[in-house]
Structures are given as C-alpha cells and as structure tokens.
Specification:
single chain; about 350 residues; alpha/beta; Udp-n-acetylmuramoylalanyl-d-glutamate--2,6- Diaminopimelate Ligase, Chain: A, domain 1; twelve-stranded mixed sheet; 3 helices; flat; Hexapep; N-acyltransferase activity; lipid a biosynthesis; EC 2.3.1.191; acyltransferase
C-alpha cells in the first residue's frame, strides 16, 4: 500500500518541506533508506545520514535546522521518534487488517462472533464460545469450549486457548502460547505413586494484555488464574495455577511463577526469575534478572540474588564475595602463624 507525504503529514499533524505528492510503501532505518521508504531522524549522531539517505520521506523535529541540502521530503513534527512510532502502529494496523473465515476451519455449535472477524485456515472454535468485534485469529489456532474473547484481540498462529478461558479487549497472544492448560497438581499416594488433582478453574486475562510466544498460563485448581489489565509478558514464561499478576506489571523471558503467588501492580521482573508459590510480591517491586524469590516482598523494594535480598544488601555482599579467595587466604595464613607460635 502506497501513501503520500501529504497523507502522512495529516496523520502526524506535521509540516511538509519538499514534495507533498511523493509516495512511500515501506519503513527503513535512515542509514538504510531506499527510494519509496520513510524513515526518521531524532538522534543527532545520525544527522549526517540525512544528506545521503535515499529514503523518500524523513520525519524530523520542528526545531531541526539542516546544514546542507536535503533530497528527501521532510515532515516536521514536535517529536520525530513518537511520530515514527505512530507510523509503525499505523502500518501494523494495515498489515493486520484481515477479515473473513478461511477454509478449512471449524465453528462449533453455539459460537457467537461480532463484526470483522478474521479466522485463518485450520482453526478450531469450540462450543458456545463468544468472540467480539474485530478479532483476528490466525491459522492453526485452537479455541476451546465456553471461551470469551473481547473486541480487537489478536491470536497469532498456533495459539492454544483451553476451555472456559476469558480474554479481554485489545489483547495480543503470540504464536505457541498456551492459556488454560492444567495446573501442576498431584497428591502423593502411600505406594509412592501420584494421583492427579482435577484442575477445574479457569484463566482470566483482562484488557490490554500482551503475551509473548511459547508462554504457558495454567488454569486454576479452583477459582481463576488472573492476568490483570495492561500486563506485558515476554516469551517463554511459566505462570502456574491460581497465580495473580497485577495491573501493568512487566515480566521478562524465562521467568517461572509457582502456584498461588500474588504479584502486585506496576512491577518489573527480569529474565530467568524464579518465584515460589503462596507468597505476595507488593506493588512497584523491581526484581533483577536471575533472582530466586523465596519469601514475600514489600511494596517498592528492589531485590536481587538467589535467594533474593534487597538490592543494596546484594551489592554489598557481592563486594565481599569477590574478595572471598583473598579472605580465605588471609585466614589460612593467620591459622598457620598461630600454629607456629
């Protein structure tokens, strides 16, 4: 799809310097710009590329004054970085602008769906599932019975949504993610074997949540596993049964959260963090990567290490840890000296 500088300037509320009729159809870095592409300039380190880029349109800040002639058409805006982000969002919306039901696909008995549904080929939608308006479900996806999916939500190819799951509006679930699989519940028997505890709860995902690829969110044993509004989950995260993740919390890849842990609002959790079950992580907590969290954490704390401790304590301890070989050597020398006396 081609779009003119005039149309872009209207979207961005910007001023055009150059040819308002020039057309673009792709996005590019300023140093890699080609004819027909649009790019942006926000970092002064890249100013010199403005005079050599082959991009057709460059978005610049209104206060930027070029030192040489610029071949590209410039669109002047208040903040070029934010403006280019808006263009990225616009381009992504166009790319995802699909509708219709491809075949083969299965819509089971009692399914209800709104306007502008896109259902890719080889999808299965279970009984009595309710799907909102403008929902996109890409090929090879599975949606079980009695699922609810809110408006403007996207399930990318190969997503697996088990029965009774509730997904809110404006959510994005990426390929390979599984929502609603059984929690890890087994009772030991006297003969050393285990009996499975039925997992009869569900998963609730509130509005504006994004979940990366190959993440697993287990259904609750009873009640619900809950991902609150605005949460962002990276790829390859494990969230166990009856966990609750608070609003606008962000969790990086390879983190594992054990059953019934409660995570507060506005937390930032680094990659490869392990959180034990049945503890409470307060609001606005920061957990550094590769930390092992074995007890509850108060609001606003920053923790690190395994077992995790406050960031300041960890930093002080690490200084001593690095000196440990020399400390042991000094102790051995003292012991030797005492033996010689």
């Amino acid at each position: 799809m081609k779009i003119t500088a005039e149309q872009i300037a209207e979207v961005l509320n910007g001023n055009i310097v150059g040819d308002s009729t020039v057309e673009v159809f792709k996005l590019a870095k300023i140093e890699e710009g080609e004819e027909g592409s649009i790019t942006f300039l926000s970092n002064s380190k890249y100013n010199h590329f403005l005079y050599t880029t082959k991009a057709s349109i460059v978005i610049v800040n209104k206060d930027f004054q070029p030192l040489h002639d610029v071949k590209a058409t410039m669109i002047q805006v208040d903040d070029s970085y934010k403006a280019f982000t808006k263009i990225l969002e616009y381009a992504n919306q166009i790319k995802l602008m699909k509708s219709g039901i491809e075949q083969p696909s299965v819509l089971s008995e009692g399914v209800e769906y709104g306007t502008d549904l896109y259902l890719g080929s080889f999808c299965y939608i279970g009984k009595n599932t309710k799907i909102g308006n403008n929902v996109k479900i890409y090929p090879n996806s599975f949606v079980g019975d009695n699922v609810t999916i809110g408006d403007n939500t996207i399930l990318f190819a190969g997503a697996r949504i088990y029965s009774e799951t509730v997904i809110g509006k404006n959510c994005v679930i990426h390929s390979g993610t599984i929502v609603g699989s059984d929690g890890f519940g087994f009772a030991p028997n006297t003969d050393g074997t285990y009996s499975k505890i039925p997992q009869i709860g569900n998963v609730i995902i509130e509005d504006d949540v994004e979940i990366g690829s190959c993440t697993t969110i287990d259904r609750a044993t009873l009640g619900s596993t809950i991902i609150r509004k605005g949460v962002k989950l990276d790829n390859q995260i494990q969230i166990a049964h009856n966990v609750e993740v608070g609003e606008n919390t962000v969790i990086a890849s390879q983190t594992g959260i054990a059953g019934s842990a409660k995570i507060g609002k506005n937390c930032v959790i680094g990659g490869q963090v392990g959180i034990v079950g049945h503890i409470v992580i307060g609001d606005n907590v920061r957990i550094q990567a590769q930390s092992g969290v074995g007890k509850s954490v108060k609001d606003g704390e920053i923790i690190q290490g395994s077992p995790a401790m406050t960031y300041n304590d960890f930093s002080k301890s690490y200084v001593y840890f690095k000196k440990l070989p020399n400390i042991v050597k000094e102790i051995d020398q003292l012991k030797k000296s005492n033996n010689e006396i």
